């Protein structure tokens, strides 16, 4: 599940970034911000997808991805709700939707990380010996 969640996040981020760079929909955000965010999403998407292809993704990097996704998602919601940019109605909808999606990726990744951790810990606990 963890590898699937990482790959899904990678594909979605890459696609969103590429569409943002190529189409630059009118959402009310400055063009410079759109280009910067689009470029970040493309690079991030490739990196997270690559992480999901590893036989055993590094737990520390996965935790950074989860924390980053939570921060990104919450920031997106705050951006839309607090009108940090003069977003259009479609801009608000898009920013909120991608913010919620990113939080969803973080949840899937966290659950996958916990499952992967419990699977790798299985059978590694020393057995207590009874002296009776």
Give the structure's gist in a few sentences.
The chain has 132 residues and is mainly α. The protein contains four helices and no strands.
Task: Describe the overall structure.
- With 132 residues, this protein is mainly α.
- It has one domain (2-113).
- Helix content is 77%, strand content 0%.
- The protein has four helices and no strands.
- It has helices spanning 2-23, 31-53, 59-82, 89-121.
- Helix 1 runs antiparallel to helix 2.
- The longest helix is centred in the C-terminal third of the chain and has 33 residues, at 89-121.
- The protein is elongated and about 50 Å long.
- The protein starts with a helix and ends in an 11-residue tail after the last helix.
What brief labels describe this structure?
single chain, mainly alpha, 0% strand, 132 residues
Topology:
Blueprint: H1 2-23, H2 31-53, H3 59-82, H4 89-121
Helix pairs in contact: 1-2, 1-4, 3-4
Question: Could you list the spans in which at least 5 consecutive residues all have pLDDT below 50?
Answer: 122-126
Global geometry: elongated
Question: What series of H and E elements makes up the topology?
Answer: HHHH
Number of domains: 1
């Amino acid at each position: 599940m963890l590898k699937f969640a990482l790959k899904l996040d990678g594909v979605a981020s890459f696609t969103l970034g590429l569409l943002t760079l190529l189409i630059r929909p009118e959402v009310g955000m400055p063009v410079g911000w759109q280009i910067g965010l689009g470029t970040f999403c493309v690079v991030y998407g490739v990196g997270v997808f690559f992480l999901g292809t590893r036989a055993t993704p590094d737990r520390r990097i996965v935790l950074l991805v989860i924390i980053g996704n939570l921060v990104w998602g919450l920031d997106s919601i705050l951006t839309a709700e607090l009108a940090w940019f003069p977003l259009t109605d479609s801009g608000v909808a898009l920013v909120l939707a991608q913010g919620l999606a990113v939080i969803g990726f973080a949840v899937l990744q966290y659950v996958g990380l916990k499952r992967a951790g419990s699977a790798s810990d299985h059978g590694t606990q020393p057995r207590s010996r009874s002296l009776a």
